[in-house]
């Protein structure tokens, strides 16, 4: 395949950074890592699942040239906590690392979000690099500088905006990822087509079988287009004062599902796939999408093997209660990301409540 790796830029003035996408990037730290290091000290952060697969390779490429240490965290969303971030601080302090040290996140979105948050806080801010190893983290969480941890009272409630110095996407790491996690990442890929790029959505419909086989050309194209759309939105609205919120298509319905199922049964990508179908259904009831388009969206998620209906235990009342805690509630008014058409999302609080009730009724069982 020509032109690998692909290179994109997140354009944020003096804080701009590159995204490299291709196979084997982990094998060439001289090209993709060394140019982004400030000092001689590097702390790689990974977890118990990813470290046995990729940590040695990364460390071997760094050790001869840099003072390189590693911290391996427990694996799981339940460990995305201040306690885990404290383990990173412990390692940095025990090794007497200073402000010119660089943190390197090697793992999925959980490792990336915590490493970024540790980098935002340590000595009031140090550099970090993202090496995302799940599809979701490659197309979404590693780009854009949202970092943080969960609080017992809410997901991602403690955090900071802190941009990485570079994002290194080695697609070869996806070969070891469980298929269920890969499918969940595809939900985010499809999201970009829905919110911003109808042609991309059509290409995904055409190439979905190849994508499910991890066929390299199609996979690189899909990751590149996803990152390009995200980079462009982040460059336009880094702090989410407006447009960036469209990246949350399906998330208000999806977060309600994740909360109702205790963050343990459904993966994030699974919940937002269902949430995007619900948002599409509501958009149709508001007179924007055609019913055929809603059916096409549902069919694509079904082809990927993602859920398109909420758990049978969920009721309309349950959704309304859980959705009222959404971060997009402003002055008591719930704002939703909706589709004007495939490829054009808007954020609006001006929707007919009746239509929302009808969508919830269509997807939920009535209260007994
Ligand atoms: P994850 O980090 O939990 O990874 C999923 C599983 O795959 C984990 O068990 C992990 O150890 C394993 N894994 C990772 N890479 C692997 C590989 N190459 N081979 C084998 N196993 C591998 O989950 P995720 O889906 O990557 O990320 C979810 C997190 O991302 C959530 O905490 C979510 O809040 C966050 N997120 C953040 C943003 C953002 O903008 N910062 C955006 C979306 C999601
Ligand atoms: N994943 C949503 C955002 O980065 O804004």
Trace the largest sheet across and list its strands.
1-2-9-6-5-3-4
Using the CA coordinates, give the radius of gyration.
20 Å
Q: Gap between N and C termini, in Å?
A: 57 Å
Overall mean pLDDT: 95
Poorly predicted runs: none
Structural class: alpha/beta
What ligand species are in this complex? nicotinamide-adenine-dinucleotide, glycine
Report the portion of residues in β strands: 15-25%
Tally of distinct domains: 2
| H/E series | EEHEHEHEHEHEEEHHHHHHHEEEEH
Shape category: globular
Q: Indicate the CATH architecture of the largest domain.
A: Up-down Bundle
Q: How many strands in all?
A: 13
- Under CATH, the homologous superfamily of the largest domain reads Dehydroquinate synthase-like - alpha domain
Query: Mind summarizing the main beta sheet?
Result: 7 strands, mixed
